[in-house]
Every structure is written in C-alpha cells, then in structure tokens.
Amino acid sequence: MKKLINDPRHIVREALEGLVASTGHLALVEGENIVVQRELADPQMRRVAVISGGGSGHEPAHAGYVGAGMLTAAVAGDVFTSPSVDAVLAGIRCAAGPAGALLIVKNYTGDRLNFGLAAELAREAGIPVEIVLVADDVSLRDRVPAERRRGIAGTVLVHKIAGAAAARGWPLEQVAAIATRAASAVGSMGVGLGACTVPSAGTPSFTLGEDEIEYGLGIHGEKGVERVSMKPADAIVDDILGHICEEIPAGAQRVALLVNGLGATPPLELQIVARHAIASLRARGLTPVRAWVGNFMTALEMPGVSLSVLPVDEELLELLDAPSEASAWMPSAHLGGPVATVAVPGAAESTQTEGSSPGPLTDTLRRVATDVAHALIAAETELGELDGRAGDGDLGASMARGAQAILDLPDAAYHTPAQFLAALAQGMRRAIAGSSGPFYAIGLLRASRELAGVAQPSAAQWHAAFAAALAGVMDMGGAKPGDRTMVDALAAASEAWAKALSKGAGGLDAFHQAAQAAQAAADQTANMQPRLGRASYLGQRAVGVPDGGAVAVSLWLDAIHKSLDAT
User: Fold this and answer.
1) Segments of 280-404 assigned E as strands
2) What is the pLDDT of residue 87?
C-alpha cells in the first residue's frame, strides 16, 4: 500500500485540517471531526441548519459541501465508518438554532442509527430536527425493498437543494419536504473498474480480473451486484442509464445529470462518459438541462464512475442554480442542444494543387502508401510498449493515427509524387499531435517542394527529396545524429542511400541499403545517452532501450522497400 498519509489513526483529522486551512469560510469543531461554516449567525438568528456526513474516504463529500447555500456542517467518521451519535449531536448543537436542523443521511445502517439517535437526543434538548434518508442506488432494485437501498452520489444533489432552500429562509418542514422530494426522485448507479484500499486494512477490498468490471457497487469499497467483461464507455453508460431510466416517472421530461468519478477516474474519461450520457438521455426522450462532471462522492482511489439522474421542475432548478460558497460544488452547466461547433475562418486547405489526372506513378504511390499504413498499424502495440519504456507511451497510437490518415487520402492525392507528399504532410499534421506530427509534416512538405513539377523522379531526385525532409526535421527540432532520436535512423538512411547511388547502385538496391542502415541505426540508439526529447529526462535510465521514433522510421522504410520489391 502506497498512500500519502502519516498514521492511519489520524488521517481524518489531518485531512479536515488541510481542508479548513486552505478554505477561508470553514472552521473545525474542537475535539470532534466536524466542519462548520465559519461565520454562523447568532443562534437565535440562524436559519435551518442542513447537516450531513458519514464515513470519510468519499472526499470531497461531505466537508467539501459545507458553505453558505449548501451544508451548514458535516460530521466525519473514520474511513467508511459512520460517525458516532455524540459526534452527530455535537454537530447539531454547533450548527442549529431555534429554527432547527435537517439531517441528510445516506441509507446505510450505521448512518441511520447514529444520526437517528442523535436526532432524538437533540429533540429532547429542544432542538427541532428532521431527517431525510437518501436511497438512490437503483442497482439494488431487484434485491431489496426501495427503503433499504443504499444512498450514493445522488445525495450531493439533495445537499444542494436543501441548502439552497434553507438559505432562502424556508421553515424546517418546508426544507425537509423539498429535500424528501429530491431524494425520492433521484436515481443513481455506479460501475467499478477496480477496488480501493482502506488505509487501516492495507489491501484491496476485492479483486477484479484484467477484463472485468463490477456494476452496482457501493461507495464503501463493497462488491457490486453483477460482474461482467469490460465494455466500451458508451455501452457502460447505456447499461447504467437503462436501470436508472426505468424508474423515471412517465411524463417526466427535464432532468439534471451528475457524472461522478469514484476517485481514480481521470477527467478525460469522465467527459467521455458525460458526452454519451447526455446523448443517451436525449435518445430516451428526456431533456437534460443541467449537468455536473467531476469527483463529487468518491470511494478513495477506486476507478469507476456513477451516474445520477434527477427529474426536475422550475422549483428544483432554481434551487440547484442558487449560488453556494461550498468549495467542492461547481456552478450549474446549462445544457442546450447538440454539441456546439464553430467553423475555422478562412478557406479550407486543398492539396490538389497540381496534377488534374493520374500520373505514371499513381498506382505505385497508392500501393506503397497502403502497405506502409498497414505495417504501422500492425506495429502499434510494439511501438507503444517501446515508447512507454523511455517516453510517454503514445508513439504507437500516434503512428496508427498517421497510418489511418494515409488510408483516408483522396484519390487525387496520388496524381503526382509532390502532390502525394503534400497531402501526406497535411494528413500527418492533422492526425498526429505531440512532436511526431510536426516533424513528419515538415519533412514531407520539404520533400514535396523538392519534387514539384516532377512526374516521375529519378533515384537521385528521390534521394534529394529524402535529404530535404531530413534537413527539415533537423531544422525544426534541433536534433543531430547521436542525440538518440528519429534523426539517427533518417540520417543513417540518407547517408547509405547517397553512398550507394554514388557507387552506381540501382534505385531499388540503393534504397534497400538505406532501409538496412536505418534499422542498424535504430538498434544502436539503445546504447546512446538521450540528449533530446522525453527520454532525455530519464538520462542513463533510458539506455538499453532503442528510441521509438528511430524504430518507427526503420519500420516504414522497410515497408516501402518490401512493397517496391514485390512489384
């Protein structure tokens, strides 16, 4: 277990201290793991206090939602453990005045018992208290009665609605009523891609196979209700929404969507989920009008996501849109129609600058280009693994995208060599991000200029174009032979090619020698100290691994040679 903690016994207090120290509107209760709004009014003047809490490990829930317009206080238990009755009671006494308190409780046994008994004791002390249970986990529909379902991420929407209602000065009964309405309407379901590790346990709560995911898991690291094989994100979203939407009342139209990461899912993946969730809701005849995407109620470092859907009317929308000082809440995203797009100003680029009809090399260029593309696609895994050992691991995917750009070239791109190289430069530039795209684009563009107006280049002219491409790559990146980059393979190929031609070798034989030299140079990069690129950050640790960019060059040069040799 590797976690940024000190002593597992103190992690909750230390985490709350960090939150309060970095957030000006919060305060900690002495002797208790309770976070309250710092600037509370005199007790006699206070509005209804909205209090929630539960086990820790769900950050930013629950303390992250303390702030004007949301929670008045949050009571934190140990990781995945309900706070004690006395802690909840202390929270009520610190936050509530004569207007009373609303306790929002996730439907877990420990939370129900401790918050419920604290409410009874508070009432005996003269503090009006109401409780709203949230049981939004629809995955348990066929296993337990509705009143026994777990409370998960939909609870956050109930926090927001109740907090906004209390901020308006509504009486306790009215705040409780609107919170109950929201809690009864919201439906949620999650999927886990892996387990989490409770600090005090030190081992994962369960295990999943490499190709397994778990539907319907809770937020305490417990197993779900169904284990299935991994699916694309869109299919997972459809499965989850299929369960949630079965319970949306007929006639409901507008909904709010919460896309919640479970702790280890990066924003990139959450946005992919949000994209399809919004589209899928629309396809089901619903109109998503608000959406939030991020980590709202996690399970430590669990990878996965949950979706919550809340049918809304104008009253609920106003409360969701109301401002809040809570640090973990984000403003509502007002949704319109389909994804908005804008066109790039200016005329579209065209690569059809010459050659209105096929030239003598059209068929050869198309065949060779196709063979190169297939070779690069076949090498995607190899290049990715190689790059991952000394870089960021994206080279295989980048070259595969470049290969697809080759396959997508229009027929007119093959009319002349110059036109082909210019079209390929444009395709590489658009398809490959990072450094590879610009390097290949500048090289291909320089080569295209070298062959402008030449319908059937000689061997010497092809080499001149290759040398021009090499010069372009070196000019742009500053790399030289010996720096352990793609330039090592390109330069070796150019030198061998020129030498072979000077000795009278035929065009195909000279190119074969160039491809062999590139392969040898790529292999030799394993013994070089990297001086440029991401591998240079690793220094000596990169030695022993060939440079991925140089290997890629050797692969496509070899593919060109084999394709030409087969004719």
Assistant:
1) 287-294, 304-311, 333-334
2) 97
The sign of the dihedral angle between the CA atoms of 53, 54, 55, 58 is negative
DSSP H or E run through 260:
strand 254-261
pLDDT digits (tens, 9 = 90+) for 210-260: 899 999 987 887 777 899 999 999 999 999 999 999 999 998 999 999 999
pLDDT for the residue numbered 537: 39
Residue pair 414/370 in contact by the 8 Å Cβ criterion: no
Query: Using 50, 70 and 90 to split pLDDT, how confident is the model at 530?
Result: low
Residues 75, 87 contacting (CB under 8 angstroms): yes
Q: Minimal CA–CA distance to 76: which of 135, 18, 158? A: 18
Dig out the tokens for 157 from the structure.
């929407």
Token representation of residue 277: 């969730």
- What Å distances lie between residue 189 and 138, 260, 314, 337, 554, CA to CA? 6, 10, 25, 25, 49
Could you say which DSSP state residue 137 is in? B
Going by C-alpha positions, the residue among 407, 292, 423, 264 that lies closest to residue 350 is 423
User: Is the predicted pLDDT of residue 350 greater than 60, yes or no?
Assistant: no
Rounded to whole angstroms, the Cα distance separating 152 from 386 reads 42
Residue tagged active-site, from 220, 243, 276, 463: 220
Q: In sequence order, what DSSP letters do the residues of 162-217 get, joined into one string?
A: HHHHHHTT--HHHHHHHHHHHHHH-EEEEEESS--B-TTT-SBSS---TTEEEES-
User: Is 25 marked active-site?
Assistant: no
> Residue type at 350?
S
pLDDT for 528 beyond 90: no
Q: CA 26: distance to chain centroid?
A: 30
Radius of gyration of the chain (CA): 31
Residue among 466, 402, 476 nearest 439 (CA): 476
pLDDT of residue 531: 58
Burial tier of 294 (Cβ tally within 10 Å: 0-12, 13-18, 19+)? middle
Tokens at residue 233, please? 């994100």
Q: Taking the model in full, what pTM does it have?
A: 0.78
Asked if residues 302 and 192 have their Cβ atoms less than 8 Å apart, the reply is yes
Interatomic CA distance for residues 307 and 260, integer angstroms: 6
Report the first-to-last Cα separation within the chain, whole angstroms. 58
User: What are the pLDDT digits (tens) for 479-524?
Assistant: 899 988 999 999 999 999 999 999 999 999 999 999 999 999 999 9
Is residue 221 classed as helix, strand or coil in its secondary structure? Answer: coil
Nearest Cα to Cα of residue 104 among 43, 166, 29 = 166
Containing 28, the helix (H) or strand (E) segment is strand 26-28
